[in-house]
Every structure is written in structure tokens, then in C-alpha cells.
Design goal:
With about 240 residues, the protein is of the alpha+beta class. The protein has a domain at about 1-75: Arc Repressor Mutant, subunit A, CATH 1.10.10. It is about 45% helix and about 25% strand. It has a four-stranded antiparallel sheet. The protein has a four-stranded antiparallel sheet with strand order 5-6-4-7, sandwiched between helices. Helix 3 (about 25-40) packs antiparallel against helix 4 (about 45-60) and helix 3 (about 25-40) packs across helix 5. The two termini are about 25 Å apart.
Length: about 240
């Protein structure tokens, strides 16, 4: 678990800079648009949309931006059509990487993702090749100021699997099938959820040499900078002192 958690911590530390560049907002707008297109514009009837809007609110996205993204998704406003594509691959040292993308042109995105793997000493894999190293889980990142005992009581009663204490947040894990139930419990409990999603959580974490670890961090940062990449997951045990430029 800590591979994803440590990456999340690093990303939250530089989140303000990302927001200024528009990177976070762009990803959230894409997710809101696709969620509304696939499940309709009613948040109460569309759990994926509700999650996307909650994540957008947590990043202080203007409500007008959210509304326009929903209307583009439902077809009430013109907009780009994005498709979901999942890519799998391996970096140096056999590190598995799962990449979720939203793109308006897979013929552009696929070779670009392949190039990034090859540039940093890895390769793309066939569908399912890397997925077997992960479990699909609900992941909720909750503000650290939360009462831990109360949080544990509420989410475990709702069916959560575990709570992980990180440097700046609590991470709540659930079965993918229990995602909506835990989400509703957190909402009713008034907890400050910084971010939530369905995630790929690794079974085990790989430790690498310093050189190989730097190569993996380099490809992760390159993927993070790619305009079509929404999120990614890895089974690399990122060192505690790892930082991004």
C-alpha cells in the first residue's frame, strides 16, 4: 500500500503548483464530463459523478466550471468526447505500472505512453499482465485533523477493510463493491474527504536500488505530466526521502 500512499503524499505536497498550472483542474473536468456522459448529470443517481464533483470541490474548483463540465457530458453544451483507456506496463526492476487515461485520440496517446515506458527502460504489457499484481479497491483520503477513532468506527461499520495512517492524511480502503456504501458513510459523518476513487492497490511492494528507483520516479513524473493520464498505480516502494523536482 505504501507505494501508492507515498506517491500520494509527494503529489499533495506539490498540489498547489499543479493547480496553478491547470493540471489538476483539467483532469477533474475530464472526469466530470465522462462521468456525466456515462451515468447522467444527477449526482445523487450517479456515484461516479458525485465522487468527481467532491474531488473538484476539495480542490476549490469554481462551481461554474463544474456545471459546464456536467453539461458538456450530458450533451447540453458542445465539447470534446473523451474515451477511457487502461494501459499496463513494467519499468526497470519488474515494477508494474497501471495507467488510467481519458483521451480524445487513442491513436496519439498509445504510442506516447509506449514511448515513455521505453525512454525510461521499461515496456508496455498486454492487457491483464500487470493487473494480477493489484486488487481493485475503494480509496478515500481523509484529512488528518479527523478524529481517528470516530473515523474508524464509522467506516468499519460501513464495510471498510482498513485505515492507513500517513504523514498528512488517513487513507481508508474498501472493497470496490462497497465503495458507494463507505462514500455515503463518510458523507453522512461530515468527514473532510480530500480525494476518493477506485484504485489499484498492489499485493506486494518492490524495493529497488537507488539508480533503479530514480528511473521509476522519472517515468512516474513523466506520466504525471502527460495530458491524457488521469492517475496511475505502481508496486514500487517509494523511499521515504523521495522528492520530485
Amino acid at each position: 500500500m505504501s507505494g501508492h500512499s507515498k506517491w500520494s503524499t509527494i503529489k499533495r505536497k506539490k498540489g498547489a503548483a499543479d493547480a496553478k498550472r491547470g493540471k489538476i483542474f483539467t483532469r477533474l473536468i475530464k472526469e466530470i464530463t465522462v462521468a456525466a456522459r456515462n451515468g447522467g448529470g444527477d449526482e445523487d443517481a450517479n456515484p461516479r459523478l458525485r465522487t468527481a464533483v467532491q474531488n473538484a470541490n476539495a480542490q476549490n474548483m469554481p462551481k461554474d466550471n463544474i456545471k459546464r463540465a456536467i453539461l458538456r457530458g450530458t450533451g447540453e453544451l458542445p465539447g470534446v468526447t473523451y474515451e477511457e483507456h487502461l494501459y499496463e506496463g513494467y519499468g526497470v526492476g519488474g515494477v508494474a505500472i497501471i495507467i488510467e487515461t481519458l483521451t480524445d485520440n487513442a491513436n496519439r496517446t498509445t504510442p506516447e505512453i509506449r514511448f515513455l515506458f521505453e525512454k525510461y527502460g521499461g515496456h508496455m504489457a498486454k492487457s491483464g499482465a500487470a493487473l494480477f499484481s493489484f486488487d481493485r479497491r475503494g480509496l478515500f483520503i481523509v484529512d488528518k485533523s479527523t478524529d481517528e477513532e470516530l473515523l474508524m468506527e464509522v467506516v468499519l461499520e460501513a464495510g471498510a477493510l482498513d485505515i492507513v495512517t500517513e504523514e498528512d492524511a488517513f487513507e481508508v480502503l474498501s472493497e470496490a463493491t462497497d465503495y458507494a456504501t463507505v462514500q455515503n458513510a463518510l458523507e453522512k459523518g461530515g468527514f473532510n474527504v480530500i480525494e476518493s476513487s477506485l484504485a489499484y492497490i498492489p499485493h506486494n511492494l518492490l524495493s529497488l536500488s537507488k539508480d533503479d528507483g530514480e528511473k521509476i520516479l522519472a517515468i512516474l513524473e513523466a506520466l504525471d505530466d502527460h495530458e491524457d493520464v488521469q492517475r496511475f498505480f505502481t508496486n514500487f516502494d517509494i523511499p521515504d526521502d523521495a522528492e520530485l523536482d
